[in-house]
Design goal:
Layout (H helix, E strand, L loop, with lengths): L2 H6 L23 H5 L10 H4 L7 E5 L3 H13 L4 H13 L21 E7 L4 E8 L5 H11 L4 E3 H10 L10 H15 L12 E6 L5 E7 L20 E4 L3 E7 L1 H5 L3 H10 L4 H16 L8 E7 L4 E5 L6 E5 L3 E4 L2 E2 L2
Parallel strand pairs: 3-4, 10-13
Antiparallel strand pairs: 1-5, 1-11, 2-3, 2-6, 5-6, 7-8, 8-9, 9-10, 11-12
Helix pairs in contact: 4-5, 5-6, 10-11
Bound molecules: glycine.
């Protein structure tokens, strides 16, 4: 199958995301509202039913694994760290989890067996942003992206020059290819040579958004991208407005899924603009997916595009096209995994 075909038809995509984490992650403390709306299928509440049950500070992230990340963010913030520290260090949890094959250390490599990471960081205060793409050898690209934002007049650094920047900033390079990821790549190569498709255990990108008690909003997005991608391929995740967007006056959105289907529509920018027009976070995520599906002239179920969002008031939301997509929401009292609105 040609590479382009795999992207245009996720159902035939040997690299498509297969969500292995089973729903039903125990919430440490779940509000009554959330319990009432629990879904019999997996025990997780619908995000629409709990959208108003959180108070600032609040964090929302993509996927079940985002719960541990958001809990770390809360811990950092309540421990006296800044919101930027909280978002960055929450994302570290996913980046340093070797069992997560789509983010940071242990991420699946590109077609040549090299782990190339993408990340961006955005602060709603005057839309400050930093980003790195195709970064090799650093397990925490989110921190390098933040450093781009804070120490340079630029927004995005890529490839070898991003590596040189990271080294100059004092980040320690290391080998990111774990044995498990290498074996996955070997299996993929063998399957390719035999003309077969091979599924991967990839969960996808972490996008994490945070809003503090003062109404300050910060977000980050980090990924190893599409498993076994064409070397040099960059998806939506490090692109401001595509994989992440934060507007200090309105809210923020973050994405996960097939980057090619998100970045051609500036998905997260679109969601923030929909919220500016008055839509709730979930309505805005769903409207963006409908826009993408209309543009693609194919059913949403084929797209693998998923979003989380929050607005300045602290209302959270999410919608996606992948049946296994979940989001995690954490505030001062609650920590739970929720089911986004599903569009097919
Ligand atoms: N959403 C991650 C990627 O497509 O690279």
């Amino acid at each position: 199958m040609r590479y382009e075909e795999t992207l245009r038809n996720p159902e035939r995509n040997p690299m498509k995301r297969r969500v292995l984490l089973q729903a039903g992650v125990a919430a440490t403390s779940v509000a009554t509202t959330a319990m009432r709306s629990a879904n019999a299928q997996d025990g997780n509440p619908e995000v629409g039913a709990i959208a108003d049950s959180f108070s600032r500070p609040v964090f929302i992230a993509t996927w079940n694994f985002g719960q541990a990340a958001c809990e770390r963010s809360r811990e950092v913030l309540l421990g006296g760290g800044s919101l930027k520290d909280a978002v960055e260090r929450g994302i570290h949890v996913a980046e340093l989890d070797a069992s997560n094959h789509s983010v940071g250390y242990g991420g699946f490599p590109n077609a040549q067996g090299v782990v190339q990471l993408d990340a961006c960081f955005m602060d709603g205060l005057r839309q400050q942003a930093g980003s790195v793409a195709a970064l090799e050898g650093f397990p925490n690209p989110i921190s390098v992206a933040r450093r781009v934002m804070e120490t340079t007049p630029h927004v995005m650094l890529v490839g070898d020059d991003a590596v040189a920047f990271a080294k100059k900033q004092g980040f320690q390079p290391q080998d990111l290819l774990t044995e498990e990821a290498r074996l996955g790549w070997e299996r993929w190569k063998t399957a390719q040579q035999q003309g077969e498709s091979a599924t991967t255990d990839s969960h996808d990108t972490i996008s994490l958004l945070g809003l503090n008690a003062d109404g300050h909003i910060v977000g980050g997005c980090s990924t190893s991208g599409l498993a076994f991608k064409l070397p040099g391929r960059v998806g939506d995740s490090p692109i401001i407005g595509s994989g992440l967007y934060v507007d200090g006056e309105v809210g923020a959105a973050g994405a996960t899924g097939v980057g090619e289907n998100i970045m051609r529509y500036c998905g997260c920018f679109l969601i923030v603009e929909f919220m500016r027009q008055g839509m709730s976070p979930t309505e805005a995520c769903a409207a963006a997916i409908r826009r993408i599906a209309a543009g693609e002239q194919r059913p949403a179920s084929e797209l693998s595009v998923n979003f989380v969002a929050l607005n300045k008031a602290g209302q959270v939301g999410a919608a996606g096209t992948d049946k296994g997509f979940r989001c995690a929401v954490v505030d001062g009292r609650q920590s739970l995994v929720a089911r986004p609105q599903l569009l097919q």
